[in-house]
Amino acid sequence: MRLAPCQPRKPYKTKRARPSTVPSRTGNDLLGSSQILGQLSALDKGGYVRSHRNNGKAYPTGLHAAVASLLDSLGLKYEVDSPLSQGSKLKAEFLVAGRTAIFIGRRLTKGERRAARSSGIRCVLVGMSAARSDSWDAGLRVTALSKGEGGDDSLKEGRLQTIFLDDPSFNFDYAHILPKTEKCSVMHGHTSSALVEIAGSPVEGMVVDFNDAKPIIREAISNLDHKLFIRKKYVVGETKTHIDLKFETVHGEFALHVPKETTVLLEGEATVENLAKELLDRITPKMPGNVEAVGVYVYEGMNKGTHLLARLHTKEAEKGRKR
Questions:
Q1: Does position 319 have pLDDT exceeding 50, yes or no?
Q2: Which sequence spans correspond to the domains of the chain?
């Protein structure tokens, strides 16, 4: 029986897909409609601007909307894009109760600053800065228009900057007890060091003079050097010179009679975290008014420790609260 020779297969040709269309409700090609083509053309030319809304009103940026939301939540009456006074060409994004003008995302020219001062209205500029000091700086800048040197108007600089101080004199030794832990429930000690960071608005180019900050930190650390740290609730009695301590540990009951001058009593357990808080509490009250935050890194030994940041109230803010 003879077999017929195999015939070669014809090459397979892929069919080209027909361009898909999006039908409209009327059955027409929506993407080909003049309405959509006109909108796409406008979008290509930058004809669309993102808007942000608050209470049904549209604003050009999220910052505008956030300020409007803040004013609404405070129940303050305001006008949008309002001239500072009758006949004035200078307009503020928000004019609050006819007394405060808020400008969003722009700086005023010299002529505009003169017009703002002559209006007798308090002027505030709110904006976002691309230059940020560190991860704690959100970039929001609020500056007030004020009278500068020589009678010219100037803006109070709202720049936030951070300095840090790391010095061999910031080393110290201490003893502590952590009754609820297995290893640290027996009195023992550590050699530690501290690094301090200070954040604030520079005055004459400096957040704070290093020569002013170092003595403050040294004094705080020297008062903690070679001290016993223990929780205050373990005190069961005291004399003029000594403190009696009593507490249960995983190893049994401890009773100590220790000198007052070598003991630091803490609200919480004597952890490195609470030690850092104690150090901050001794540093922050002595910082100048332009300092907004102080942070400390406290090392327990060589390769472990904690970082704690305390945000301070500026003197100007405190005055505003009292008013």
A1: no
A2: 52-155, 161-322
Copy the structure tokens of residue 108: 């005023």
Helix (H, G, I), strand (E, B) or coil at 148: coil
Instruction: Give the confidence band of 44 by pLDDT, cuts at 50, 70, 90.
Output: low
Q: Label residues 29-58 b or e (16+ Cβ within 10 Å = b).
A: eeeeeeeeeeeeeeeeeeeeeeebebeeee
pLDDT band at 187 (very low <50, low <70, confident <90, very high): confident
Q: At residue 284, what are phi and psi to the nearest 5 degrees?
A: -60, -40
DSSP string, 102-144: EEES----HHHHHHHHHHT-EEEEEEE-S--SSTT---EEEEE
Q: Which residues contact 82 (CB under 8 A, 6 or more apart)?
A: 91, 92, 94, 95
Residue 317: predicted pLDDT: 39
Report the CATH fold assignment for 52-155: Trna Endonuclease; Chain: A, domain 1 (3.40.1350)
Separation CA 178–CA 174 (nearest Å): 13
130, pLDDT greater than 50: yes
CA distance 265 to 76: 48
Closest CA to 194 of 161, 225, 232: 225
pLDDT of residue 51: 65
Angstrom distances, CA of residue 237 to CA of 176, 179, 320: 19, 19, 44
Q: Check if the beta carbon of residue 166 is closer than 8 Å to that of residue 213.
A: no
Tens of pLDDT, residue by residue over 231-267, are 999 999 999 999 999 999 888 899 999 999 999 999 9
Is the Cβ–Cβ distance between 178 and 187 less than 8 Å?
A: no
Quote the CA–CA distance of 282 and 308 in Å, as a whole number: 14
Check if the beta carbon of residue 258 is closer than 8 Å to that of residue 239. no
Res 321 pLDDT > 70 = no
CATH class given for the domain over 161-322: alpha beta
Closest CA to 99 of 127, 74, 77: 77
User: Quick check: 294 pLDDT over 90?
Assistant: yes
Task: Look at residue 296 and give its three-state secondary structure.
Answer: strand
